[in-house]
Amino acid sequence: MADQDTAPANDDGLDTATEPVAAEAKVVFTPSGKRGAFAAGTTVLEAARALGVDLDSVCGGRGICGRCQCKLSEGDFSKFGVKSKTDHLSGVNAVEERYKSKRGMKDGRRLGCQSKLLGDVVIDVPEESQVHKQVVRKRAEVRNIEIDPAVRLYYVEVAEPDMHHPSGDLERVMTALNEQWDITGLERADLPVLQSLQKALREGEWKITVAVRWDKKIVHIWPGFHDKAFGAAVDIGSTTMSVHLTDLQNGEVVASVGAMNPQIRFGEDLMSRVSYVMMNPGGDQEMTQVVRETLGYLLSQAGLEASVDVTDILEIVLVGNPIMHHLMLGIDPTELGWAPFALATNQPVRIRASELGLEGKTNPGARAYFLPCVAGHVGADAAAVVLSEGPQYRDEMTLVVDVGTNAEIVYGNKERLLACSSPTGPALEGAQISSGQRAAPGAIERVRIDKETLEPRFRVIGGDLWSDNEAFPETVKRTGVTGICGSGIIEVMAELYLAGVITRDGIIDGSLAAKTDRIVPEGRTFSYVLHRGEPEIRVTQADVRAIQLAKAALYAGAQLLIDKIGKPPERVVLAGAFGSHIDTKYAMILGLIPDCPLDMVASVGNAAGTGARIALLNVKSRDEIREVITRIEKIETAVEPRFQEHFVDAMAIPNKTAPFPNLRKEVELPEPKQATDGDGGDDSRRRRRRRAQ
Amino acid sequence: MADQDTAPANDDGLDTATEPVAAEAKVVFTPSGKRGAFAAGTTVLEAARALGVDLDSVCGGRGICGRCQCKLSEGDFSKFGVKSKTDHLSGVNAVEERYKSKRGMKDGRRLGCQSKLLGDVVIDVPEESQVHKQVVRKRAEVRNIEIDPAVRLYYVEVAEPDMHHPSGDLERVMTALNEQWDITGLERADLPVLQSLQKALREGEWKITVAVRWDKKIVHIWPGFHDKAFGAAVDIGSTTMSVHLTDLQNGEVVASVGAMNPQIRFGEDLMSRVSYVMMNPGGDQEMTQVVRETLGYLLSQAGLEASVDVTDILEIVLVGNPIMHHLMLGIDPTELGWAPFALATNQPVRIRASELGLEGKTNPGARAYFLPCVAGHVGADAAAVVLSEGPQYRDEMTLVVDVGTNAEIVYGNKERLLACSSPTGPALEGAQISSGQRAAPGAIERVRIDKETLEPRFRVIGGDLWSDNEAFPETVKRTGVTGICGSGIIEVMAELYLAGVITRDGIIDGSLAAKTDRIVPEGRTFSYVLHRGEPEIRVTQADVRAIQLAKAALYAGAQLLIDKIGKPPERVVLAGAFGSHIDTKYAMILGLIPDCPLDMVASVGNAAGTGARIALLNVKSRDEIREVITRIEKIETAVEPRFQEHFVDAMAIPNKTAPFPNLRKEVELPEPKQATDGDGGDDSRRRRRRRAQ
């Protein structure tokens, strides 16, 4: 095994096949532009290191890892004063040939550690050969992430023990890391490393790969050469949990898996879970256990999906709201259930993954890092969203809203940042809606309603056709039309409002039942039939109320922060699993978000998960967000008298008082009218229920 | 609960009962001699701190802990220019009265934190009020230990949370530690601390006691005031294990408990245990499990004995030979079974106690520290013996021998130190001896044999009378005479040799059977009947051989080191549980130790355990021994050709070639004679058996 991955050492002399052109060779590296002159016979990797060029290597120049691949650029580079020719590098030697035949290399690529400078050359370092390669993000406006994880792999050749100069095997490994990789500050090794060390050294014939954390602690050892290291970015939402298994060496997400948060059975929203703990001693431990079990399950699933071995998972970064944070860490969340909402800690929590009950789900040396919570009601998920969206770097006033069962809201710019949370409930995620469902094939996600006929047309997830297309029945044959997802609910409500079916106060106008059979009575209120079939999909008055309550809570929280800053938003970022498919125009028509130029509203999906991934891949970002958090002003909506006022105004569509001038430039909103039927009293009844939750 | 231990805060103003004599007061502290002048009204504790006087306090001057007790010395101290009078301190206030009535104080004692300077005084700080109090050792020649443990307790009053300035409970604890105790570098808290923190703060009404490790990590928190902190010094011998539960605040051993090492059932000596692992895959894990279980049991027993709560055990320091070291840590010891005897590590191992399977046996935040092994065949027990006996500080050539199933031998002085180990087997601990037993009441420990009549007299442990005293039967009525302990065996063999019963070659002289019925045939050899009764206690030829083999191995190892240095020992220290009762003269007569002036031979008992206790109580000693170890030259007896030669010579009593001039000055040794009977062939038969073990 070790033999397969081990190659003969680099030749000391020059290759006989090629002769140096000159005693000294100039080399220019691109894209960095770094350049220097070296004695003929110097390897490209040695030259790169001497010049501080960002050229990767895991095996330390032994022709095993293939990380130092580079390409000679042929031609006359007059601006560098260099005539770069192919034969200015030594020919392919046995080591390189061996690597090439085993692993393959792109045309023109050379191993930097085996290629010697014989004359002047220009060497291009492709992005994948850079240590600090950057992960390209989908959206151009957000900065890239530089890969700089907490755990790195080092291949070393270790001296054998000598009875006459006794030393521990571990100490010889440390010496090798020092001599071969210049790692000086090594403090110790985890106990499991000590337990497996002697066997690994002998199995690997004194060649091993070492996983080192912060260049200080040895956390794992593999016999021979090993180049797999993964981490998991974990987002624990009140309703859903997700795990993004990520390659720590190139930043790629190799598997993304999700599941419902099993704590739902103890209470749908956060406060009901805290109540459960207050009423049931030990209830916190039950909830801790189930959420940890599910995390373990998700890690296993992600590993299976991407064929990643458990021992190659070396780090976990977690985010979640304060109550999820406490419950995952095994801290009773009771104090978060009442004023003054005291967190156990507002610093990041750094522990072993095994302390989260993840034995057997990660490497025994894996560590877990929980991002810091911002305040007792603004969680590590908000911190992650800030890390991902970077409002702290912007000039324009930016509103970042992370929609979940609890909405986390951040507002401000590089001068000043405020944060709060608002209890929206799970309606925006499709829960508590009569035909609501998670975003999955068969769910209605786009809706249009004809203003004259009040007839609907819609599209479902997984189908490209609108429902008024004659081929539509064929496209949904496999999935059926099963319900409405979060973005579908926003659209149907906004369209019903634009068509005059729903009044500004959120009443389904029963008088229109005379005009269309889509409007049908249901008890004392009316419903709108969106799809006739099995199941029949309706929008009920209760659905409308649930969305109104959710969007009003969200808007009121945002408005509170806008009040404090005293300037309207110039940019709005809508985050959350919910937010990834939403049409931001409809969100604004409903008054979910405040008025703002529509082209400055973006929907970014799971920004909390992205923030967790940034913290996983780049350790400096952890210090950065920690520092930013200390500057964030925390607003507690529960004690702000204006919150209730904003909430009442925001119950109207889009809003009772806010004029929404930017929106009106793009969309013609209906004039306020009074419904001729329907039951306004319903509103107060629902509100009572909500408080009782 | 918290209320009981919490006192009202210190008054800010002066006591009304007493008026200051002057605006400024001179204070002289004894024994340090530190002095200064302070504004009247300054407390004695404040003055002590300002002057850097070593005056303890756990509660931070709140009159709760009573650690700052001191005493005013009345009189005219002309050398200080101070007239010290009782009324130059403020009177006993309510806080001090309360402490006095609850806890009691010696006459004349005052609480330094409550006593204010009103005029010039001389204040004596008794030893128990010093932070860096020294543990007085029994023997004057060994330096004292300054108490400076890794874990310290701090009582703090923590700010309550404020919703408008949200911060974590932990962060407010850290602020309190910083402000009230000047602890700045705090890095984090263990997860169990986070889990219990919020409850403890509220239960203690924002007053808690914090256990801080290295002033960096919070490892435990108690509500209210708490002043108990213990550590365990653990010595894992091949045959026996011992735990010394020690008060980390005053260095006192509160309980010492011991047990047989349960690994004995896998093999009596070290090599047979390694063989067991080689023959039985997974055998190392079995042995790890049983030794950890026994350690857990001993910790529980020690806690019960001293009424120490499990959560008050905050640290464990372990020592043992390399194989015990590996097996306790869960490291396969196979590599220690063959050349080059590679240790997994030769650095100290710092882990959590829970990683040794000690959950529930110590505080969840307890750490374990295993002293470093010196080499693959010289263990952490030898390191501990060096720490305890300090040959590295001495001018005279010192031989330190730690007798156990494996003897660890250190030789040298402050210029140069050598170490080796030698496989003595368990005979010197009373095992493999026909009537051998552990040192316990009823065991024969002292023996004299009349050179004329060959009649013995002896004393047993627990009795003051010799067996020829007519009251002797009465004194042993309760215990009986049950066997011979290690020191008894040494004495009886040496006395038999002096009386001519045992020849220089170790043969029980059968010809003397004609002279006394104490000498009886047993197969082809003879035995000496030491005690007639139930059980009958004999010294058999096999017993003599077992002791010869053991002492020869020990002597040969020592001689090897003496050869290397080229100078004879000027001082001999005999350590080991065995060594604590031994009469060093008899040890030398037998040739267990090399010749040396008899008054320079000391028997010091369990020096390895003492070394462990030093490392437990004084963290600097850990760095010290670590550094000393790097300087020790390690000698591997197995590959030293002269070892076998020395061994053969040392089989004779006291030795075939060494003249023992110092011994001969004090004791008349018999002239060599040949036994007229007995079986010399026995020797080689035993040797074969020994090798087969």
Keywords:
693 residues; homodimer; disordered N terminus; 31 strands; six-stranded mixed sheet; 29% helix; Nucleotidyltransferase, domain 5; Ubiquitin-like (UB roll); alpha/beta
3D structure, described in words:
Two copies of one chain form a homodimer. Chain A is an alpha/beta fold. Chain A has five domains: 2-129, Beta-grasp domain (Ubiquitin-like (UB roll)), CATH 3.10.20; 150-223, Ubiquitin-like (UB roll) (Roll); 230-370, Nucleotidyltransferase, domain 5; 399-425 and 555-663, no CATH class; 428-545 and 680-692, no CATH class. The first copy, chain A, has 18 helices and 31 strands. In chain A, the strands form eight sheets. The first copy, chain A, has a six-stranded mixed beta sheet, with helices on both faces. The first copy, chain A, has a six-stranded mixed beta sheet with strand order 30-29-20-21-22-31, sandwiched between helices. In chain A, strands 2-1-7-3-6 form a five-stranded mixed beta sheet, with helices on one face. The longest helix of chain A has 25 residues, at 541-565. The two termini of chain A are 60 Å apart. The model of chain A is unreliable at 1-16, 136-142 and 677-693 (pLDDT under 50).
Summarize the structure.
2 copies of one chain form a homodimer. Chain A is 29% helix and 22% strand. Chain A is built from 18 helices and 31 strands.
